Inverse folding.
């Protein structure tokens, strides 16, 4: 079986393909990783941003790489965010700044429930009474829709952010969402990100300068104190540290070493449209 999904004409992604790409790109720069991803997945590659400083840096890098892949492709970058309806005003303003700076549309995906409908159905302040359910309704279900026509998504996660992300690879199979997951910044440190942003004058959320190293919804994000972990302000006072978008991925090394040639997962036929995933 062919181990690649070049231009997305194949229906499957094999363990060999994931392992080979992950190993080959482990030491690659974000630019090299994105160049590979654009070449492999074309119009069915989509970039996620949560408008953190990493996400802003990722958009800048992707914009530079895309403009050199094909003339005029820069305005066809597929970038999206999950609009929970509870983001900070500064976050929505950053969206507008990034769109203007890079000449792109950052698509919005929202819950089917408005905040008012959510309160009627589940009671007030669901982010307090059941934050996992709130995240599922306002983040996970919209992400499923955002990735419906994608074959691969690009994230700005870093290994040193949380324990759950510490095992993330540059390229991996996302078992939760059944697509290839590309993490170009996974080896970067916080310092690497800020050095890039300052060196390239990348727009970023001003809340970062006000004690918010990690920014999510208004109800679940607080500034952190000196010496605290960067994500201590997220769901403060709870054991919760993740919204559920980035679950640790299963290891496929054993599949490869055992010579298993079957696919890790099939791409549904209704997602194999030749032009799916474009603007």
């Amino acid at each position: 079986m062919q181990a690649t999904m070049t231009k997305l004409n194949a229906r499957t992604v094999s363990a060999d393909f994931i392992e080979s790409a992950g190993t080959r790109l482990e030491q690659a720069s974000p630019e090299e990783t994105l160049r590979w991803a654009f070449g492999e997945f074309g119009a069915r590659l989509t970039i996620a941003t949560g408008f953190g400083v990493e996400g802003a840096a990722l958009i800048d890098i992707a914009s530079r790489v895309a403009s050199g892949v094909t003339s005029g492709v820069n305005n066809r970058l597929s970038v999206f965010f999950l609009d929970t309806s509870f983001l900070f005003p500064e976050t929505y303003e950053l969206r507008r700044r990034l769109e203007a700076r890079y000449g792109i549309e950052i698509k919005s995906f929202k819950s089917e429930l408005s905040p008012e409908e959510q309160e009627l159905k589940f009671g007030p302040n669901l982010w307090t009474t059941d934050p996992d359910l709130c995240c599922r309704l306002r983040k996970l279900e919209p992400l499923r829709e955002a990735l419906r026509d994608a074959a691969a998504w690009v994230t700005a996660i870093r290994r040193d952010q949380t324990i759950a992300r510490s095992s993330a690879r540059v390229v991996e199979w996302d078992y939760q969402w059944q697509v290839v997951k590309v993490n170009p910044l996974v080896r970067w440190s916080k310092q690497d990100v800020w050095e890039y942003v300052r060196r390239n004058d990348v727009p970023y959320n001003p809340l970062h300068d006000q004690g918010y190293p990690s920014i999510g919804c208004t109800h679940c994000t607080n500034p952190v104190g000196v010496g605290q972990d960067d994500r201590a302000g997220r769901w403060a006072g709870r054991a919760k540290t993740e919204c559920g978008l980035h679950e640790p991925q299963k290891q496929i090394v054993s599949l490869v070493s055992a010579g298993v040639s079957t696919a890790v997962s099939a791409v549904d036929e209704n997602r194999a449209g030749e032009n799916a995933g474009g603007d």
